[in-house]
Write a structure and sequence with these properties.
Number of helices: 3
Distance between the termini: 75 Å
Radius of gyration: 24 Å
Mean pLDDT: 86
Shape: elongated
Low-confidence stretches: none
Number of strands: 0
Oligomer: single chain
Strand content: under 5%
Length: 65
């Protein structure tokens, strides 16, 4: 068994650990939060509204110039 075989096995083990972590995290998150909350897109709403106000103000400046 050479170094590359050991490295290959280590990568497969790392992949399995990552997959297990993803599944556990999915189950934990899914049990803690409602489906409506997880599917909502409220996170960036404030930032988008601020950007829209800024762009509207810039358009107004160009329009009035």
């Amino acid at each position: 068994m050479n170094v590359f075989s050991l490295l290959g096995y280590a990568c497969w083990i790392g992949s399995a650990i990552l997959l297990l972590w993803l599944v556990v995290d999915f189950m934990r998150t899914n049990s803690q939060f409602e489906e409506d909350f997880l599917l909502s897109s409220r996170e960036g709403h404030d930032e988008i509204a601020e950007q829209e106000k800024m762009f509207a103000a810039d358009r107004e400046k160009v329009k009035n110039a």
